[in-house]
Structures are given as structure tokens and as C-alpha cells.
Write a structure and sequence with these properties.
By secondary structure, the chain is mainly alpha-helical. It is built from two helices and two strands, in the order H-H-E-E. Strand 1 and strand 2 form a beta hairpin. The chain binds zinc ion.
């Protein structure tokens, strides 16, 4: 049997590429997860801010409707971003295994539960 260095190099490169692609997916996926939790936190903060403006307005009697409208606009923008991120995450879980029925990431090649090719 002939010893072929190219086969070994190509084989190693293939393994490396697959691992790199997988790591890229993982980073990308967790980035979306972090974005979502940050967005949820920001939305919560904005609701607190809105509540405080409302409280102060009733306490002092000043008209702060303009400020409230601005915060409401910010909440709407953040909610739209969160919805987008939710869609991204849900779209990733769109490959159902025909052997065991597990929902896998859309980019997966093999089932995470039973290992069958998707
Ligand atoms: Zn499966």
C-alpha cells in the first residue's frame, strides 16, 4: 500500500474544518442567546424608567408625557429586536430527525440524540 501524505493532510484538514465550523456555530448561537438576555434586561430597565416617570408625573403634577412617549418608543424598538433574535433561535431548531423526532439545529448534519444523518 502506498503511503500518501496528501490523503493524511487532506483528512486532517477536513477534520479541522469541521471542528472550526462547529465552533463557529456554537459561538454564533450563544451570541444570539446573550443578545436576547441583554435585550430582555434592557426592556425591563425601560419599563422601570417608564414607571418612575409616571410616578414622578403624578407626584409632582408635571406633564412628562413626552418623556414617556420616548421611553415607550425605545421599548418598542427593543421588543422588535428581541422578536428578531427569537426568530433566529427558533429557525435554528428546524431540522427534525426522521428516526427519533428530535429537533436539531438547522445547520446540523447529524442528530444530536441518535447520531443519524439528517
Ligand atoms: Zn435522531
Amino acid at each position: 500500500m502506498a503511503f500518501n501524505i496528501d490523503n493524511i493532510v487532506n483528512g486532517a484538514k477536513d477534520v479541522f474544518d469541521k471542528a472550526a465550523a462547529k465552533a463557529g456555530e456554537a459561538i454564533d448561537y450563544s451570541k444570539v442567546q446573550i443578545d436576547r438576555s441583554q435585550l430582555r434586561g434592557k426592556i425591563k430597565e425601560k419599563y422601570v424608567e417608564l414607571g418612575k416617570i409616571c410616578y414622578d408625573m403624578h407626584e409632582c403634577g408635571d406633564d412628562r408625557t413626552g418623556e414617556m412617549k420616548k421611553v415607550i418608543g425605545e421599548i418598542k424598538a427593543l421588543s422588535a429586536k428581541l422578536e428578531e433574535a427569537d426568530i433566529t433561535v427558533n429557525a435554528k431548531k428546524s431540522k427534525t430527525c426522521r428516526f427519533c423526532g428530535t429537533a436539531n439545529d438547522a445547520v446540523s448534519t447529524y442528530c444530536t440524540k441518535c447520531g443519524e444523518k439528517l
